[in-house]
Amino acid sequence: MEMCHHTLHDCDEPVEPHREHYSDCCPHHAKPWRLGHIPLRGLLHLLILKILSKEPMRGVDIRSKLKDEVGLEVPASAIYTILGLLENKGLVASTWHVEEKGPARKLYRITEEGLDYLNDAITRIKEYKRITDYLSQ
Q1: How far apart are CA 96 and CA 58, in angstroms?
Q2: How many CB atoms lie within 10 A of CB 134?
Q3: What architecture is domain 34-135?
Q4: Cβ(3)–Cβ(14) under 8 Å?
């Protein structure tokens, strides 16, 4: 059996090479994020963009929305990783919000490019739904 030799930490757990998922440490150790039996690894960035299309918010608030509105418990580190990737691609922008009390907080908002990307993705998903509806008849 192949063993994990992740470079960031000592890990000798068995590797399950055919499972696709993400975790805080090794991708092959986590439970996949699932909604029913649909893997959400490729959709999580779209869920985050959709949430940000309603209003700017902090990463912790995005995590709460995912849990409350979609029923997903996603590690905070995954949300911040995705936010960073979306920001690097120009789909999300962030600003520091400073209040009188407490530390500065980073607020994320979707950009116009991010809205265009999200709308294009929703159009493609609707097309896939039409096809899967046809297949299930």
Answers
A1: 10
A2: 8
A3: Orthogonal Bundle (1.10)
A4: yes
- Whether this model's pTM surpasses 0.70: no
pLDDT digits over 20-53, tens only? Answer: 433 444 444 444 433 333 344 679 999 999 999 9
Q: Which stretches within 16-111 are classed as H helix?
A: 44-54, 59-65, 76-88
- Model confidence over 104-131: pLDDT tens digits? 899 999 999 999 999 999 999 999 999 9
Buried b (16+ CB within 10 A) or exposed e, 82-121: bbeebeeeebbbbeeeeeeeeeeeebbebbeebeebbeee
The amino acid at 107: L
Cα separation, 50 vs 47, in Å, equals 5
Domain extents for the chain?
1-32, 34-135
